[in-house]
Structure formats: C-alpha cells, structure tokens
Amino acid sequence: MMNSLQQEILDLKKKKNAVILAHNYQVKEIQEIADFVGDSLGLSYQAQSTNADIILFCGVHFMAETAKIVNPSRKVLLPDMDAGCSLAESCPAAELAAYKERHPGIYVVSYINCTAEVKALSDVIVTSGNAEKIVRQVPADKEILFAPDQNLGEWVIQRTGRAMKTWQGNCYVHIEFTHESIVRIRQEHPDAPLVAHPECTRAVRMLADEVCSTEKMIDYCRNHAAKQFIIITEEGMLHRLRREIPDKEFIAGPTQRCSCAECKYMKMNTLEKVLSALQEESPELTMKSELREKAHIPLQRMLEWSRN
Ligand code: 13P
Ligand code: SF4
User: Fold this and answer.
1) Pocket test for ligand 2, best of 25, 39, 60, 65 (most atoms within 8 A of CB)
2) Which residues line the pocket of ligand 1, CB cutoff 6 A?
3) pLDDT tens, 234-289?
4) How many CB atoms lie within 10 A of CB 260?
C-alpha cells in the first residue's frame, strides 16, 4: 500500500512520461515507487534503453551522469546534486591525467564510481558486476591502471591473475566492515553464508562465501539452499533482498562501530526531494557535449564487452 506522497509521485511520473531508476541502496519508500531497482550495470542498461522523456535517477551523482552519457537526449534529474561518492572524490581528473603523463601507454580501467572527467581519461569502464569479465578482455600486452577502488582492483587481480596497478581510493562505507566485526557475526550465525561486496577490504572478503555486486547477491541468495544469509554491504540492499526473497532471512553485517552501514550520499534522496524534482524538473544533470562524447567511448566499450 503506497502512502500519499508515493501516490503523488507515481501520478506525476505517468503524466510526465518519466521513469524512476533507483539503486539498491535507496531507502525502501523510494525502491517501492521505482520502475527499476538494480546495480550500476543494470541501471546503465536501463538508462540507455528507456524511451521515457525524463529519467529521474535515485542514486548518486556519477550514476545520473552515466545515464546522461549513455542517453543524452533524455532529461536526467537527480533529487540531490550533492549526492556524491567517496570513490569518485578520491580520483580527481587532474591527478589521473598527471599519472597518465608519467606512465605513457598505460591502459586505464576505471570503476564506474568516478566522474565523467575521469571516464573521459579512461580506456574502459567496469562495474562490480562485470569487472572480472572486462579485465579479462584487455589486450595482454597492456599495462593496466585500475582506478579508483583499490579493493575492487585487488579482488579482480586475485580472480584473474592479471597484474594491475591500483589507484588508492576506497568506499568509506565498505571499509568500515572489519575482520573482527565479521568474525563476530559469523560466530553468531555459523550456518548462514556470508555475502560481501568487492569494495570490502581483503581481510573481510577472505571470510566471505561469495563476493559479488549488489545485483548478483539476489541470484546467489535465491538459488542457495540456506535460509539465512549475512549481507556485507550498504543496508539499503536488505530491503531489496527482503522484498524479492521474502521466505529467507537477511542479517546486516555489522561494522566495528554499528550494526549496519549506511551511505550518507545514497540517503540524501528522500520522497520529498523526488516529488519536488519531478514537479520542478530540477535539479537537472547537464554536461558539455565534448565531455559526454569522450566519456561515452569507454562506457560504450564496457556495455559491449559486458555482453560478450
Ligand atoms: P553495485 O554496482 O554493486 O550496485 O555497486 C555500486 C556501489 O556504489 C557500491 O558501493
Ligand atoms: Fe560511493 Fe560507497 Fe556510497 Fe557506493 S556506498 S555510492 S561506493 S560512497
């Protein structure tokens, strides 16, 4: 049953031919009114293929930017333009450009959690859902820099055996999970498989039964015989899992300081801001066409390689 604010958004969305794309970390009330809820990869494909006049993106800035890059003729709205990402912040384009000058010929593989300017300096983009697959397709003679997430980069190195230099960025949410906090929860639920996002540190990933993107967590938990799972990622993911797989139990992996982890940027979006964005058709995400065209090349390469 929708509340009145949700109903108002749904009515206006229909009237304006808008589509609401929401990331798995959005609050429950936003997930409930979205046309599509998913991970960065799924959201990119949805943004690319939509016929809606307006894409109302409930996620963070780099995700809305990605939507604009892959589908520039749509109006892209982001309820709060300050919804950033610690990974995107950790890699200023000027620093990456300087790094490339010092390492001529380096092949830059960038995690989608980066700015459009960084994408424009990259050879190919990856998401947590396809990073391993994409890196396996980089020509063998290339020296690779993986930016900006050192943890995802290390995980891909472990999985593929491919040597890569890694930018030293991280997700401020996922590095809060510690070996100690996860060992503790595992002892409390010894039979529950442990599912972790690759942005977690190696000390946490090594305890996990499965390391995967938020979307793949759904398939893993659905297809596994277990009835209880420990989920080590941002807490919004638990709403999605509980909605899609109601007969199983999901336990939030604790950090050292609290019982679950929240991304302050993802949580900047509220139903009130979503309604206002639709009413005002603002804040709108705009981008210079030169930047968009440059950023589109590695992103399009990813979308193609991801289908291989
Ligand atoms: P996913 O693509 O796995 O949803 O990850 C996005 C993200 O921001 C994780 O912190
Ligand atoms: Fe960025 Fe981490 Fe928030 Fe994901 S959870 S948007 S990586 S800060």
Assistant:
1) 60
2) 24, 39-40, 113, 127-129, 171, 199, 213-214
3) 999 999 999 999 999 999 999 988 877 999 999 999 999 999 999 999 999 999 99
4) 15
